[in-house]
Amino acid sequence: MSDNQLRAVEGTIHFDGPMATKGFRFNKMCYSFNSEDNRQAFRDDPEAYMERFGISDEQRQAVRDQDIIRMLELGGSIYYMAKFAIIFGWNMQIIGGMQTGRTTEEFKAYLESQGRGKHHG
Amino acid sequence: MAKLIGGITTSHIPAIGVAMDKHLEDTPYYRDLFAIYPPIREWLQQEKPDIAVLFYNDHGLEMFLDKKPTFAIGCAPEYHNADEGWGINPIPPVTGETELSWHIVNHLIDNDFDPTVCQDIKVDHGATVPLTLLWPNFTYQGIKVIPVSINCERHPMPKPSRSYAFGQAIGDAIRSWDSDQKVVVLGTGGLSHQLDGQRAGILNGDFDNDCMDKLVNDPEALCQYSNADLIEKGGAQMVELAMWMAMRGTMTGEVKEVLRSYVSPISNTGVGVQLLVNT
């Protein structure tokens, strides 16, 4: 089987060419958050910042809603979306909970339930 | 000729970088993880490699979607780290080794691999977290580093078999370099984790350990997996096994596992660490 014909995996949105096309401007905006000046500009006026990058109305709404699954559906790549972390005070467990309908504590417990090799915590 | 003294695999989770910044190594959550590394550091101090060839994937510090190499190799005298928006303090510059970099590039292109050649790239946590774990307190500045990146973000990405073959070509290049220097190879990232989607948070300790078994004795078996197989078994970011495959590809002959540890979860990830040497 060609490895590029990714078969569907439940609960997974493969970030492939069509998604990267759809999400290019949105991801470019998120990529800009590598700079503190840009993060501050977003904090100061998120609407103007999104306008500057020309992202779609649906993507703007997903950002306003902090709806991570929707951002992914609209072509977001988790690598760049994770750069919202400092702006919104997220970490990967908060992001995990938001996507799976769990509280952060529930998400951590889910991770730990599959864990091994930890003897101290 | 240069000598390839062994290979090390390790995760490169950003949270580990943050934990080191905040000196959380001895807290209950991180104690088991950080207990893995002292024997590997001792081995490195004994063996004293001059150069580390480091396979990593860029997570959006240097390589955005506008120009995204499938395989890329650093050919710079120095590599800088920078703010990548994830809250990890940037580390001081990493020293490069241009002569071996160019030797590898020549060898690769002669042997039908055509990587992107980078004379000025920033390296992200994929490279810096392993370096600071293995050579803490900035002692990584005592060795020279050649970063080699593999796209693990946007499909299509290289098949596991291709990353393995890429590593084989780099191993041959290292062994054919006219130098008495010693080289260690680092395969970073993984193992099971999925950051995105409703399936976020899946881990697969059985599969991770099976991959580590096969990495030692039967890497060809891992070459049979497609990236879709890896995603299904170990989550969307299990594709980072690519760097482990490349590391293993550099090693020839009988391989002995000197050390293996597995701690899961750290952040959202199953952490596997191995030290492999030729028997």
Explain what the structure shows.
The complex is a heterodimer of chains A (121) and B (279). In chain A, 60% of the residues lie in helices and 0% in strands. Chain A is mainly α and 121 residues long. Chain A has two domains: 17-89, Orthogonal Bundle (Protocatechuate 4,5-dioxygenase, Chain A); 91-121, no CATH class. In chain A, helix 3 (36-44) crosses helix 4 and helix 9 (92-100) crosses helix 10. The longest helix of chain A has 10 residues, at 104-113. Chain A is globular, with a radius of gyration of 16 Å. With 279 residues, chain B is of the alpha/beta class. Chain B has a single domain (3-278), classed as Protocatechuate 4,5-dioxygenase, Chain B (3-Layer(aba) Sandwich), CATH 3.40.830. Chain B has helices at residues 14-21, 28-34, 38-47, 98-110, 125-134, 160-175, 205-217, 219-222, 227-234, 241-249, and strands at residues 3-10, 51-56, 71-74, 78-79, 94-95, 116-118, 144-150, 182-188, 255-266, 269-278. In chain B, the strands form two sheets. Chain B has an eight-stranded mixed beta sheet, with helices on both faces. In chain B, strands 4-5 form a two-stranded antiparallel sheet. In chain B, a hairpin with a 2-residue loop joins strand 9 (255-266) and strand 10. In chain B, helix 4 packs across helix 6 and helix 6 packs parallel to helix 10. Chains A and B meet through helix 2, helix 6, helix 7, helix 9 and helix 10 of A and helix 2, helix 9 and strand 9 of B.
